[in-house]
Amino acid sequence: MIDRFRLYAKGGEGGSGCSSFRRSRHDRHGRPDGGDGGRGGDVILECSATVWDFSNLQHHVNAKRGGHGTSKNKIGTRGADKVVRVPVGTVVHLVEGEVPSQVEHRSSAALDPWEIPGSLDVDLSVSHQKPASVNPSTVEVAETVDIIDGSSTCIEQTVEESVRKRQATQVSSSVSLPQSSPSNNKSRILNEDFLSYKGEGGSDPEIVETDDGMSEPELEEQREEKEQIQYNVAELTEEGQRIIVAHGGEGGVGNISSSKNSRDHKLTKLGAEVSDDDQSSLGIGSPGSEAILVLELKSIADVGLVGFPNAGKSTLLGAMSRAKPTVGHYAFTTLRPNIGNLKYDDLSVTVADIPGLIKGAHENRGLGHAFLRHIERTKVIAYVVDLAAALDGRKGIPPWEQLKDLILELEYYREGLSNRPSLVVANKIDEAGTEEVYEELKRRVQGVPIFPVCAVLEEGIPELKAGLRMLVNSAESYGLSLDRISLD
Ligand SMILES: Nc1nc2c(ncn2[C@@H]2O[C@H](COP(=O)(O)OP(=O)(O)OP(=O)(O)O)[C@@H](O)[C@H]2O)c(=O)[nH]1
């Protein structure tokens, strides 16, 4: 599971404007008829419930450049947007570039063709309308789409026709399939020099193997410590939500538009050539914006089930909700968080069963940080302990020590992480000898409610659900702290 990802995004360059003259028998000098270049595509992040993590993303994403303007007043096509689908709960941190902006959702009926980027109004200072949503059923993990509100659009129309008729634009579809990135588990770093990558048409840059034995996530973290990152600039929490992370450049101005300027108009009317300088400044499309982002995935759940592997968290989630998580008698059966819904008469509470924590997780052991990040976004912590872990010569540790270690891991990772409403679930009460362990647990751990349950037989579940509801509603607040746990 990849839950942290570095993304380099580059908007498409604007197409060049055209310089051309239409001559006739009656007009030897000719009239300017070169169309404007099309606007470059945007790089868009789209929130999708069908995407689980960042493993299908490419590190470098380029939107397409706009088409060049041509003679007979034809405007260049708008560059295709690059839509990158990310999971629900993606948080965006900005390393370099502009803060992302929201894509406006508008129906095609409400869309005025005159507002289409790169169309007739060549006022470059005006910010153009953003495209609305694509039909999600037609796209995969990443795609290129020419979009105008749900359909793909290439606009190629003559200026004069448009002025006369003001009719709908000619639309043509082009949705291309995603390119999945190859997975590479080797220790490696991606070439940091984004500049050297510019203009290489979206192919991944040179991959440099490291010989210092560090894993890629470790290198990422080390690099991020040196950078000045703007944290949490955007959050994608709802299916279909879209943000633009890199904007396409504006198309260059063709000489039909530039001739509207009185100075140029006079010059062109007289048949004089526009100077080379003017031509280049008017004709060339502007480059798209660039951004370097760190995407981070955090679960969004009311309650997080926190416990060592095999404590019975997945079984418990299945007993409380309709979720069907994988259950196994070996550690790390759960490799990604399962989310379950607890239904009450007037309320619904989401519960995340988060991959098993082990000692040393704060140093990234086991599932380490991947696990700890998910905890950050839960309101309530339910510590799940195995009452039978140390019984009958088993190698586990007693539940009060499990609790101490769990709190320490959370606190080592981020101070204050365990400071939130909590309760303890004492699981496996059905096993012989656990009654005594439960009594001792109550004696040793103070200040939090403890619920004895048997997850496999679904015993004690209604009481636990009532307890969770109380905490989520903030009617009562209990917290588990080290000083309330008595150890030998
Ligand atoms: N006797 C008994 N066994 C249980 C109970 N709850 C779970 N188990 C067993 O404990 C083992 C681990 O259960 P899981 O639900 O996969 O544990 P987990 O905490 O989700 O484990 P990870 O996925 O590794 O984090 C399985 O063999 C379950 O059948 C219980 O109430 N009583």
Automatic annotation (TrEMBL):
Residues 206-219 have a biased composition (Acidic residues). GO terms for biological process: ribosome biogenesis. Keywords: GTP-binding, Nucleotide-binding. PROSITE patterns: ARF (PS51417), G_OBG (PS51710), OBG (PS51883). Signal peptide: none annotated. Pfam families: GTP1_OBG, MMR_HSR1. Residues 170-183 have a biased composition (Low complexity). Transmembrane segments: none annotated. Residues 11-40, 166-219 are annotated as: Disordered. The keyword Nucleotide-binding applies. InterPro entries: G_OBG, GTP-bd, GTP-bd_Obg/CgtA, GTP1_OBG_dom, GTP1_OBG_dom_sf, OBG_GTPase, P-loop_NTPase. Residues 301-473 form the OBG-type G domain. CDD domains: Obg (cd01898). GO terms for cellular component: mitochondrion. Belongs to the TRAFAC class OBG-HflX-like GTPase superfamily. OBG GTPase family. PANTHER family: DEVELOPMENTALLY REGULATED GTP-BINDING PROTEIN-RELATED, MITOCHONDRIAL RIBOSOME-ASSOCIATED GTPASE 2. This is Uncharacterized protein. The lineage of its organism: Eukaryota, Viridiplantae, Streptophyta, Embryophyta, Tracheophyta.
